[in-house]
Amino acid sequence: MLDHVGLRVRDFPKAKAFYKAVLAPLEYELVKEIGPEMGVEYVGAGFGPRGKPEFWIGAGTPNGPVHVAFLAPNRAAVDAFYKAALAAGAADHGPPGVRAHYHPNYFGAFVLDLDGNNIEAVCHTTA
């Protein structure tokens, strides 16, 4: 089981705003920011549900492209994620829909973030 995952991003302020908007429908929020004022060289932001940062972005040369899939509480959240991502500047990489080749209830949406990473929201239920 993973505790957290992190990506490097070219434009940290833009990426932070992007992920703040895109992850909100999935009930993730900006939980913590880290920077030089804390005595570290890393500049980063952690997003997560219930106050725990599970997904981090950090300023630097991207380490991707990578694929990250976020679990959505329902299909409506997948739709909202997709709309928010496109509005925030993501490129379509697969609209919301059933991906039966994974399993009959796999409902996902895929976008490419500002650095070309394949970001997905997925729900495994029928609603």
TrEMBL record:
It comes from the Bacteria. SUPFAM superfamilies: Glyoxalase/Bleomycin resistance protein/Dihydroxybiphenyl dioxygenase. Gene3D superfamilies: 2,3-Dihydroxybiphenyl 1,2-Dioxygenase, domain 1 (3.10.180.10). Residues 1-124 form the VOC domain. This is VOC family protein. It comes from Pendulispora albinea. The lineage of its organism: Bacteria, Pseudomonadati, Myxococcota, Myxococcia, Myxococcales.
